[in-house]
Amino acid sequence: MKKILFVSSEVHPLIKTGGLADVAGSLPLSLAQLGQDIRILLPNYGAIKYTQEVHKKCTLYVDNRTVHILETQLPDSDVIVWLLDYHEFFGDEGNPYTDKDGNPWANSAERFALFSRIAVEISQNRADLNWQADIVHCNDWQSGLVPALLSLEPVRPATVFTIHNMAYQGVYSKDIFQSLNLPGELWNHNLIEFYGNMSFIKGGIACADHITTVSPNYALEIQTPEFGYGLDNLLQHRHNDLHGIINGIDLEQWSPENDTRIPQAYSVDNLAKKSINKTALQKHFSLPEDESISVIGLISRLVDQKGINLVIACLESMVNYPMQFVLLGSGDKDLEHRLTNLSYLHPDQISIKIGYDEDLAHLIEAGSDFFLMPSLFEPCGLNQLFSQRYGTLPIVRHTGGLADTVVDTLPETITDHTATGFVFNEPSVGALLETIKRALLIYANAKVWKQLQKNAMKKDFSWEKSAKDYIALYNC
Length: 476
Ligand code: ADP
Prior knowledge:
This protein is an alpha/beta fold. The protein folds into 2 domains: 3-250 and 464-474, Rossmann fold; 271-457, Glycogen Phosphorylase B (Rossmann fold), CATH 3.40.50. The protein has 19 helices and 18 strands. The protein has a 9-stranded mixed beta sheet, with helices on both faces. A 6-stranded parallel beta sheet has the order 15-14-13-16-17-18, sandwiched between helices. Helix 10 crosses helix 13 and helix 11 (308-318) packs parallel to helix 12. The two termini are 13 Å apart. The model has no long low-confidence stretch (mean pLDDT 97). The structure holds adenosine-5'-diphosphate (ADP). Adenosine-5'-diphosphate binds at residues 18-19, 22, 299-301, 328-330, 356-358, 361, 380-383.
């Protein structure tokens, strides 16, 4: 049994902007079930939704600041969450990275430097919590300074750094580095210095004992210039310590047979009931309620990474096919406008909801026939996993974790019952349209379609296997 401090800037259901929160809210539960003593560290954001009791545990003085540590639990579990309470940085409305108008916080570097420093104090048992970590498991750039700071300590726990997305690196100027009062030794190109700037993520990659990322394919991709963003050489250098461990999903939340957020639960044995959710979805999105027409769903942050420009370029042609398209997402204002305009032009086939809505996300997973994920890159991706559980077949680009988790429908994969979706390579309008056409043809063949849904729904996306892979690393 190891004592693990799991450091994350978002944790579902307390606060979420994307997949990191899903992982941080479900992997620790699985690790606890496998006998590990795990504590999560998260900033106490103004926007957190508490469901459990919260109480103060201790006070620390770090970098001339007085910081409190509060304690709560992950809902319906014994997993302890420690909240870094520092109102001046984290008390305002907004999400972990942007204010309520979507502008990045001006003091992000200061916020996450403090977060990292507190993680170090706790993991070194200097925080009056009477708990000595064996392992500090950090996630993404927001905790990248933790392995770097710990590397300066003579005695320290082992460190694991997980990359959920290489595209976000936490790069700041030398002036900002100087204003953070960090140890001067860190300004070294073998540590956090990155072409004259400081890089939080580099601290994690250069200094952690083990590096992981969220799919085996992405672990290979980030060692190339296209996906490595200037850190591919360092990742190649560290390839013996770099592991791709695929994310699992929280089956308590994402199982059609006991999902209380959808109008009609269903399972692989009564798939016909799925259509009740489809009609509810069409109604919710003000589309004609027609069971026979295929519905393609998409839920995403609206950013370049997710291939939204490609979707926009295809939609004018997609409306010539017998299909309806529903999208839930928010992000880039220009993408939001262009999508909304298309829905005004084709109100019977395209419907768009701008916003963040977890209940609606469940309805889209349950009610759609297809789920579209044409990402330009995708470290793991969770929606294609949820979709398969819900018998909603994913249409994905062959990249990152999408390539690892969706089996394309081909004559041989139909025959051996491994096909679970539709995969294309080129990020081009032609390739995406061709694949959608191919998917719609299969949809028209009820017998094959049902078999594909069953193949997808029976796949094991539980955390157990991956959690065991993490434990094997902790024990190295
Ligand atoms: P990323 O972390 O890059 O955003 P992932 O596929 O790993 O992508 O995880 C995204 C998570 O966020 C999924 O759980 C997805 O359902 C959820 N999500 C994204 N956008 C929304 C939204 N607008 N409303 C509700 N959930 C969303």
